[in-house]
Each structure stands twice: as structure tokens, then as C-alpha cells.
Design goal:
single chain; alpha+beta; Pnp Oxidase, Chain A; two-stranded antiparallel ribbon; 8 helices; 12 strands; 32% helix
Length: 339
């Protein structure tokens, strides 16, 4: 990141204020600086088969579609039915975010980028509103390769991800993600492989929230990991970072509400044996209807084949009787004629 030069400042500010209108009213005495990120490496993963390293020249030559106005933006995120805590309830607010959100950005110290930070989107679950954070990852992930060298990671979340807080096309009741009243949370600690004794807890938690993960290919060797939270960075109002210990975070109470997830699909009950977690019922009637239709079709086919078999057997019996009569007549020196 570099401070932008004076010649480009007007262009940069116009672009920022167009996309983030509230920035225009931020207090001037906070000594804001306009900075530019000069990328040296671009990591893109948008299909099966692994990530792509995009050449910088191709990146700058690309001509994407113009971004839609704020009021046309559509948030594809979970909807929640859990009320937002009050502003001064910092611990409850942090736990609320961890519970209702299902993905965040996991930051590691990259081994591929000579120690530069690397952010990777991960899906997670908080184990029935316990505050503990579980993920399901493969060694194919660059983040896990980084963890093998340095297990310390950070997971960043933003209230801007919560669709229920959108207003007039903007998140956080009409604000932007960098506004202090739009809560932001970063949890830091070691990412550790889940012990065998807690595999069931992790599996039920993660698969219960992300209901397609259980189908992910086994040959990719996915495993469960837990972020052992040691430090917490939290802002939800003006006045700077709000101090919060891990103990305060874990002891806070949060309602265990229903998440209306987009990937709410049927799951085999055996995945949740003894967990108390229920499978989704939204697709169950359709599954049962499919089984019923298939069963009826099989019965119809069975009786149809049985009837055809009986008719075939009757024809065989008649032919056999004719052969017997014909043989008897011929043995007596007569003749046998059929119409």
C-alpha cells in the first residue's frame, strides 16, 4: 500500500466517494489518507480444478461490466431472525456476528509470497452458538500450507455481510463497511486440527450449517480444524477499538437462531447421529414423493412383466399340446393339418 500522489488524488477521491457516499462526511481532523494497492500477485479461484494466477497485464487489460448502483445490488447471504444486540453490548455483538455469518476471510502469512499476508475466503460454523469456530479444509488450500509453517491466523468478519441490515442498497442500515457503526471483527489465534474426540462435534457443526460440504470429494482429504481464539479486534461504534478478552467473548450469551441458508439441502441422518441436529425438512417431501413415484413405477412394471410371462407360458403349453397330438397321429399312420 502506498500513499497516492497529488496528481491522482482527485481521481481517487471521486472514485471512492462515488462508490462510498458516506465517506464525504467523515471528519477532516482524522487526517485521512488516500492509498493505492499495487498488486504483485493475483490468486483467483472460481471453478473446479484449482486456482489461477492471473498475469497483471491481463488483469489491467480486462474490461468488466460496470458496477451496478448501490440500490440495484443484491446480497446473496444468509438471512437471520436473531435481533441485533445493542451497540454497547460488545461481547454479544461479536458473538452475534460469529453466529449469523457463515463465511469470512482467513488471513495467513504466505509461504508463496515471501511472508506477505494472504487472505482466503473460508466457510465456518460456530458449533450451535458456542463461539468456537470450526472449518473444513484441504491441504490443497494455500492457507493450510501456510499454517504448516506458521499456525497463527486471523479471521475477519463484517456486519456488511448481514443482508437483514441492508437499507437503500447499502449495508449496515445505510452505511458502508468501513463506517465504525458497521461492526467489524477479527479473531486471531492458532488454527489446529480437531482432535479425534471432537470430530463428531465439528462435523455436525460444519455440515449442519453448510449442507453440501459432506459431498465434497474424499480424495481431496478434507479435515476439520478449529481456530483457537487468542486475540480479538472489534469495532462497532465511534471511539476506536473496543477491548475484549477471549474469556469475555466466550462467556457472552447469544440466541441460537434459525439460519435461512441458500444451500439448505437434504442431509443423511447418519451424519448427525447423536448430535440433536435435525436435517432440513424443506426438500424431504419432494424426496419422499420421488420414492413413491419410483415404487409405483416398479410395481406396474413387475405386474406387466408377470402378465407377459403368463401369456408366454400359455402359448408354450398350447404348442406343446399340439406337438403331442401331432406325434400321436403320425405314430398311427395318419396326417395332421393346421389351419
Amino acid at each position: 500500500m502506498e500513499i497516492i500522489n497529488a496528481a491522482d488524488r482527485a481521481f481517487a477521491e471521486a472514485s471512492l466517494f462515488d462508490q462510498n457516499p458516506p465517506m464525504k462526511n467523515w471528519p477532516a481532523d482524522h487526517n485521512w489518507k488516500v492509498m493505492e494497492l499495487h498488486p504483485t500477485s493475483i490468486f483467483v479461484l472460481y471453478h473446479y480444478g484449482g486456482a489461477d494466477d492471473v498475469p497483471l497485464d491481463d488483469y489491467y487489460k480486462a474490461s468488466p461490466q460496470p458496477a451496478p448502483p448501490h440500490y440495484q445490488q443484491i446480497a446473496v447471504m444468509p438471512r437471520v431472525n436473531i435481533p441485533r444486540p445493542e451497540t454497547q453490548q460488545h461481547e454479544q455483538m461479536a458473538r452475534w456476528m460469529v453466529h449469523i455469518l457463515s463465511w469470512g476471510v482467513l488471513h495467513t502469512i504466505s509461504t508463496n509470497l515471501d511472508g506477505a499476508p494472504f487472505g482466503h475466503v473460508v466457510s465456518f460454523s460456530d458449533a450451535d452458538a458456542s463461539g468456537r469456530i470450526f472449518v473444513y479444509m484441504t491441504k490443497m488450500s494455500p492457507s493450510l500450507r501456510d499454517v504448516d509453517t506458521n499456525p497463527w491466523v486471523s479471521l475477519s468478519l463484517s456486519e456488511a455481510q448481514v443482508v437483514s441490515q441492508f437499507k437503500d442498497g447499502l449495508p449496515c442500515r445505510g452505511e458502508i463497511a468501513e463506517e465504525p457503526t458497521c461492526a467489524r471483527l477479527t479473531l486471531s489465534g492458532k488454527l489446529e486440527k480437531v482432535s479425534q474426540s471432537e470430530i463428531t462435534l465439528a462435523r455436525n457443526s460444519v455440515f449442519g450449517r453448510h449442507r453440501t460440504m459432506w459431498r465434497w470429494p474424499k480424495n481431496h482429504k478434507f479435515e476439520f480444524y478449529e481456530l483457537k481464539v487468542a486475540q480479538i479486534f472489534f469495532i462497532d461504534f465511534y471511539g476506536g477499538v473496543k477491548p475484549m478478552s477471549t474469556k469475555q467473548y466466550l462467556q457472552a450469551k447469544v440466541q441460537n437462531g434459525i439460519i435461512e441458508a441458500w444451500n439448505d439441502l437434504y442431509l443423511p441422518e447418519e451424519l448427525f447421529a447423536g448430535s440433536g441436529t435435525k436435517c432440513s425438512s424443506t426438500i424431504f417431501p419432494w424426496v419422499m414423493s420421488g420414492f413413491l413415484v419410483a415404487a409405483v413405477a416398479i410395481l406396474v412394471l413387475f405386474f406387466y412383466q408377470r402378465r407377459r410371462r403368463a401369456e408366454y407360458m400359455q402359448v408354450e403349453i398350447k404348442d406343446s399340446e399340439k406337438d403331442t397330438v401331432q406325434s400321436g397321429i403320425r405314430s398311427q399312420g395318419g396326417s395332421f393339418t393346421t389351419d
